[in-house]
Amino acid sequence: MSQRQVLQVFEQYQKARTQFVQTIAELATRPQNIETLQNAGVMSLLRPLLLDVVPTIQQTAALALGRLANYNDDLAEAVVKGDILPQLVYSLAEQNRFYKKAAAFVLRAVAKHSPELAQAVVDCGALDALVISLEEFDPGVKEAAAWALGYIARHNAELSQAVVDAGAVPLLVLCVQEPEVALKRIAASALSDISKHSPELAQTVVDAGAIAHLAQMILNPDAKLKRQVFSALSQISKHSVDLAEMVVEAEIFPAVLTCLKDPDEYVKKNVATLMREIAKHTPEGVPQLAICLTEEPEDHIKAATAWAFGQIGRHTPEHARAVAVANVLPKLLSLYMETDSSEDLQVKAKKALKSILQKCTHLPALEPLLHDASPNILKHVVGQFSKVLPHDSKARRLFVTSGGLKKIQEIKAEPGSALQEYINSINNCYPEEIVRYYSPGYSETLLERVENYQPVM
Questions:
Q1: Element counts in the chain: helices (H) and strands (E)
Q2: Which of 180, 309, 154, 291 shows the shortest CA–CA distance to 232?
Q3: Which DSSP symbol is given to 221?
Q4: How many CB atoms sit inside 10 A of residue 401's CB?
Q5: Which residues 6+ apart lie within 8 Å of 151 measured at CB?
């Protein structure tokens, strides 16, 4: 046999290996093939090809493994049990950029399924290799590494802390500043995943200067990037007053309000969530939101704003008061009752009203609703008066002079209904003759009796 014939054998073997991994990688893109591939022992066949002498075979084998591991946790577990992870980690440091991207993809695909699998990725030394990859020249390698780090961090505080301890945060903040939009997206997402677990982890992200760079991108034209930016700012803001105020101080208002008009549903949702997270600590954003509720012509923006108000007002009586003082309740009621409002706006305005009313003890803001609210909202308004009046003599007096008690007598409620019980509770706060003979012009003596009357508890 000639030398050429001998070499042809090797060439054919190489072509066969190449064709095999390429075909497997292609088959792994379709879910219906996964079980068959798994039963055929594809994992054990791909593993040695990760060490192949031909770089393209190595890369394609890694890509195939990543697609398989991405499909379900059983296949991801098979990657771990097959002792494949150490080889991938080694390759992250030694191989070319194409292989590095594929190797990071496999690590991400394994880590995404559960904290246990993510911990297996950490235990094989992947964090240091991934963090080093964040410093690569190639943006695709950085993106793949950032993606894997985010998938590890998202599971719990311990894994997130491990990512922080490996030195990932400052490099992720640098990645946010890179020109490639895809890299910005993934880096912002990873920062969000790190920040969400605890105030301490969020503070680490803040200390690395992330807020200023994230805030600069809230008007970026790329919707997917804005989703991640608002998500990250929300995860930072949610933990404490100090963190929320740091986000506000980055001058995100009023620019952030324009993003309520964004055509992307997830952007709008994340903006509303950010507003809720900020406002639950500090009601600074309420006046700006109230302006949006009045001046914004688009129903879907008003609906998002109404939802945000509901989230703000439901936290505490103080939050509900801040919303009420901003004169939001009549606006929500009007939007709910207007026939021109979209169904979504009506639903969100109604839900917001109920959420706010159930916490609101600021009666002067509730009283106008006694005259205008529909029966299903009126029930909640009257219910709040029935909670507060028995314990507040000043409020009882004001309720008479303002005409509130008179209005209560005019309400027609079904006997035995919750609304009737609320009305009875309010009436029990006053002497019987005041309830019976109430009129706008009471004498001072009668008002003194109102103030000094001890209600039936």
A1: 31, 0
A2: 154
A3: S
A4: 12
A5: 108, 111, 112, 118, 193
Helices (H), 124-198: 126-133, 139-153, 157-165, 168-176, 181-195
Rg (CA), the chain: 31
Region 254-270 average pLDDT: 83
| Residue listed under structure tokens 């301490």 | 200
Phi, psi of 227 (to 5 degrees): -55, -50
Amino acid residing at 326: A
pLDDT at 1 (0 to 100): 66
DSSP 383-430: HHHHHHGGG-HHHHHHHHHTTHHHHHHH----TTSHHHHHHHHHHTTS
Q: Can you tell me the distance from the alpha carbon of 348 to that of 353, in angstroms, rounded to the nearest whole number? A: 8
Pairwise CA distance, residues 164 & 290, whole Å: 39
Q: Which amino acid belongs to residue 395?
A: A
Map residue 82 onto helix, strand or coil. coil
H helix runs in 196-316, sequence order: 199-207, 210-215, 223-237, 241-248, 255-258, 265-281, 286-295, 299-313
Nearest to 99 by CA among 54, 132, 68: 54
How far apart (Å, rounded) are the C-alpha atoms in residues 31 and 241?
46
Q: What is the pTM of this model?
A: 0.70
Q: Which amino acid is at 153?
A: A
- 310, 352 contact by CB (below 8 A): yes
Any idea of the CA torsion for 434, 439, 441, 446, to the nearest 10 degrees? 0
At 216 the three-state DSSP class reads coil
Q: How far is CA 98 from CA 55, 58, 92, 101, 129, in A?
A: 9, 10, 10, 5, 15
Q: What are phi and psi of 265, to 5 degrees?
A: -60, -40
Q: Is the pLDDT of residue 217 over 60?
A: yes
11-64 confidence digits (pLDDT tens): 898 899 999 999 999 999 999 998 899 888 888 898 888 888 888 888 899 999
Place of tokens 């001890």: 454
